[in-house]
């Protein structure tokens, strides 16, 4: 189709929309630099005091630390369980395994408020409310489907004959898994681990239900700051989160480019 | 062991850990909630009957459905425009567009909600700017009403709307459009009668995906609605965390869950679920 007038206007519109998607978040940058004690746009004067507060306040630092611990543990656990499960489903690949796959993807799509209710309901009798274990387990269940998807995508391009060859050459199941399958699906595993980390790092709805005092993650503290709507430290935290997002994005772009190159070879 | 292997594929052994965990810690309590909706506080359908009794509950459900429909409509139209532009431009421009799309996809929901709070408030940047250039005399209420909720939700949902559409548009054979033009159809005829029907699976998947995600959305409505726009998700959280009434909350959750599952089933007729998410995960 020739790029007509319609196509041209649509492209301009699409760029406007894309900028509409990204730019609003940037307002956190000027607000975080305000010299005042309340949320405001700086007028001529700038100050880094809110960043200083962010990095010296015990509360914010402990939230960064807690979120980090929870996200790393969740990512490790979800990657382990999700990768194993993806390999299992790929090996079985029958009608039942596809049913199980669809079932295991449900935590991704079921509204978070329902997931939050479910975990809250069960965590009360199990005594897991407001504990690291409770948050890590809940986040792992939400994040494992991500790993399942990325690893399955990698497995789809893996040649099953390689596995057969490895076995024919006398390698055990375990050796085949470690030396043949895992290296070829590494990009999918890494991508899954990254997504799982971000999901947990950013999770708020379930966290609001199952944490209270002793575990206070970063999103939880931001949520509080947003509800109170006074302290500019929230803006500084938002800027840091945007920076982390951009870094994570760059890492994943490099990974996926390497993945594409590996597939092209 | 050998006999067992013959009946059960050994692959199930490594599927089992995750599956058991999800069944025990996720499916279990969800079934329990469904059960609660017909047993708490007393057995029977009294919770469901509440929907027909007062009009408070039904109004919340109606607000939720209305906001979700409007959100879905705008997100899918905007998403279609973006996806169309992405498929029909040069590789380099497409890469830039995809980068912007994915960056926005990845920015924390809390950061975005906070940003809207700063932009849309009475003394927010939008109002101040509009007043400075003399377009308005009084600050416009962009927040604490449905308008604010809609802005925040559409902004969040657009990337989700784009991804299934992109998958679907990329699989279309461009030669079909050329053939239509060669046979004498105009550009707009080709679009409405050939292109649009061919993107229908992506359109359905994108519509249902956005609608499902909007239904249970909590953060943005709670903040930008400012207590004035009560949607089901926020109502559930108040019921559980403040008034401790499981029955009503469970009933609303059950209705939402059944609605979501029905829509998922319809969606799976049009597009493989893992394709929808696979696009999102990349």
UniProtKB/TrEMBL annotation, chain A:
Record SUPFAM superfamilies: MetI-like
Xref: InterPro entries: MetI-like, MetI-like_sf
Domain ABC transmembrane type-1 positions: 64-252
Pfam families: BPD_transp_1
Localization in the cell: Cell inner membrane; Cell membrane
Record key words, sorted: Cell inner membrane, Cell membrane, Membrane, Transmembrane, Transmembrane helix, Transport
Cell inner membrane in keyword set: yes
The keyword Cell membrane belongs to this UniProt entry's keyword annotation: yes
Membrane-crossing segments per the record: 64-90, 102-124, 136-158, 188-213, 233-255
GO cellular component entries: plasma membrane
GO biological-process terms attached to the record: transmembrane transport
Lipid bilayer topology: Multi-pass membrane protein
Family stated for the protein in its record: Belongs to the binding-protein-dependent transport system permease family.
Name by which UniProt lists this protein: Inner membrane ABC transporter permease protein YdcV
Organism of origin: Ruegeria denitrificans
Organism lineage: Bacteria, Pseudomonadati, Pseudomonadota, Alphaproteobacteria, Rhodobacterales
UniProtKB/TrEMBL annotation, chain B:
Gene name tied to this protein: potB_1
Family matches, as Pfam families: BPD_transp_1
Annotated protein name in UniProt: Spermidine/putrescine transport system permease protein PotB
Alphabetized UniProt keyword annotations: Cell membrane, Membrane, Transmembrane, Transmembrane helix, Transport
Localization: Cell membrane
Any Gene Ontology biological process: transmembrane transport
GO cellular component: plasma membrane
Transmembrane segments: 12-36, 56-83, 95-119, 147-167, 203-224, 244-266
SUPFAM superfamilies noted in UniProt: MetI-like (SSF161098)
Domain ABC transmembrane type-1: 61-267
CDD domains cross-referenced by the UniProt entry: TM_PBP2
Family: Belongs to the binding-protein-dependent transport system permease family. CysTW subfamily.
Domain of life: Bacteria
Membrane-protein topology: Multi-pass membrane protein
Annotated PROSITE patterns: ABC_TM1
